Amino acid sequence: MSVPRTLFEKLWDRHVVRAETLDTPAVLYVDLHLVHEVTSAQAFDELRRRGIRVRAPHRTIATMDHSTPTTPGGFAALPVLDDANRSRQAQVETLARNCAEFGVPLLPLGDARQGIVHVIGPELGLTQPGMTVVCGDSHTSTHGAFGALAFGVGTSQVAHVLATQCLLQTKPKTLEVRVDGALAPGVSAKDVILAVCATLGVGGATGHVIEYTGAVIRGLSMEERMTVCNMSIEAGARAGMVAPDDTTFAYLQGRPHAPTGAAWDAAVADWRALATDAGATFDRSVTIDGSALRPMITYGTNPGMGVPIDAAVPDPDRLDDRAERENAWRALRYMGLTPGNPLAGTPVDVVFLGSCTNSRLSDLRDAARVLRGRHVAPNVRALVVPGSQQVKRAAEAEGLHHVFQEAGAEWREAGCSMCIAMNGDQLRPGQLAVSTSNRNFEGRQGSGGRTLLASPLTAAAAAVTGVITDPRTLLAGGAPA
Ligand SMILES: CC(C)[C@H](C(=O)O)[C@@H](O)C(=O)O
Ligand code: SF4
């Protein structure tokens, strides 16, 4: 009998080209390399300087997402092509030139398949179980939802992977995050991962790859599993993953890059064998009672500073550690929140529905559940930004854009948008946003802007009432227990 192994260990073993030694990391083979405009330019420059070609262009694909405008028509249609817009445009043009020169397939602005890198990989069937997936982007952990080992890498590693299709890695430890029970109505995948981040803390999973297990995780759709895996990095994890199962296979079957015919059957048989073996052990395990979870929201300036939406702002003075206490006070001063006050009822200026965490069709449907037949509060600007052109078309096919527009929200083109504020969509200083994205760092959504992370249901509820609101009060039959 072979030694029982975890999902992570099976993937690691399959991809090691050269084992780790005392003084050198392991060499890992990379099955899929995703590229975007922000972290690739210097990597291509490096290849050019050294006269190296891209080793496996067919395992590489690029999209434009971070710096692209989300107004229809792209750069050409912008009212002002100021310096900032010109430099964004130069960035995407550089990517287009690099892809043409190095033979890398590209989904440019205007392409029907363009979108946020972590949304398009799965929806095109590029991301598959058992793969190693890398991208010069920390939220590459999203792809782990498929039972892939998916890492974010830095720009110099992007160059390594372009040149060699391999990556140097020291072997991470394993952490099981088990979410048992069943989620109550109005509680979503975003609430699960915000609770995980609050439980582990921002550095809590450093050096580990998380495998999410338990009844709640098994019951999530692929889109919801992506939301969970997406924010693994916010707890410090190297990657997050979910073992592939029938939900995974049903999502993948028929997608453009998924195997077909006999190759599909063989792939599914292989993928099924990836699940963690009975008796395999993790370096650490954490259990969360999913049945006890309530909608979550952050109050501070890192994603681990989250509480149930009906809780009060935590008092920093209750923290024993001096550095943590000072950090918490600084966060509350920045956020303009007072310890002991309820979060619910706090006025909101902007609601952002989008980002690689929550911009897929199911997220937009959740938002529409709340917004249908209602109106965005007069003091609120609400933006709905689909994660890809494909999501946009699917949402329009079922009329969701009408729901948003009739409610007074903006319906925009696909991209990172206000998640990162490097494309013209941003908060003004002092504005407070409820956002479905994944980072609430100081100034993340615009200099001086303040961000509270929450689910699409919670964000939509804030849009309607103009204040932080428990979404269960607005859902049919979903009053808080
Ligand atoms: C621009 C990119 C390097 C960055 C990342 O790595 O995550 C961005 O996507 C983000 O979300 O902060
Ligand atoms: S949507 Fe946000 S988190 Fe995701 S890749 Fe873009 S900037 Fe990064």
TrEMBL record:
Q: Per its UniProt entry, which superkingdom is the organism in?
A: Bacteria
The reply to whether Nucleotide-binding figures as a keyword in the UniProt entry is no
The residues covered by the Aconitase/3-isopropylmalate dehydratase large subunit alpha/beta/alpha domain are: 9-466
Annotated pathway: Amino-acid biosynthesis; L-leucine biosynthesis; L-leucine from 3-methyl-2-oxobutanoate: step 2/4
| KW 4Fe-4S (keyword) present | yes
Record-linked InterPro entries = 3-IsopropMal_deHydase_lsu (IPR004430), Acnase/IPM_dHydase_lsu_aba_1/3 (IPR015931), Acoase/IPM_deHydtase_lsu_aba (IPR001030), Aconitase_4Fe-4S_BS (IPR018136), Aconitase_4Fe-4S_dom (IPR036008), IPM_dehydratase_rel_enz (IPR050067), IPMI_cat (IPR033941)
UniProt-annotated binding residues for [4Fe-4S] cluster: 356, 416, 419
Q: How is the cofactor bound?
A: Binds 1 [4Fe-4S] cluster per subunit.
Q: Give the EC number(s) under which this enzyme is classified.
A: 4.2.1.33
Keywords assigned by UniProt, alphabetized? 4Fe-4S, Amino-acid biosynthesis, Branched-chain amino acid biosynthesis, Iron, Iron-sulfur, Leucine biosynthesis, Lyase, Metal-binding, Plasmid
- The protein's required cofactors: [4Fe-4S] cluster
Output the GO biological process annotations, alphabetical, semicolon-separated: L-leucine biosynthetic process
**Catalytic activity, per the record?**
(2R,3S)-3-isopropylmalate = (2S)-2-isopropylmalate
Tell me the GO molecular function terms.
Answer: 3-isopropylmalate dehydratase activity; 4 iron, 4 sulfur cluster binding; metal ion binding
Q: How does it assemble?
A: Heterodimer of LeuC and LeuD.
In UniProt terms, what function does this protein have? Catalyzes the isomerization between 2-isopropylmalate and 3-isopropylmalate, via the formation of 2-isopropylmaleate.
NCBIfam families the UniProt entry points to:
leuC, PRK05478.1, PRK12466.1
Q: Which family does it belong to?
A: Belongs to the aconitase/IPM isomerase family. LeuC type 1 subfamily.
In Swiss-Prot or TrEMBL terms, this protein is called 3-isopropylmalate dehydratase large subunit
> Whose protein is this, by species?
Gemmatirosa kalamazoonensis
List the top taxonomic levels of the source.
Bacteria, Pseudomonadati, Gemmatimonadota, Gemmatimonadia, Gemmatimonadales
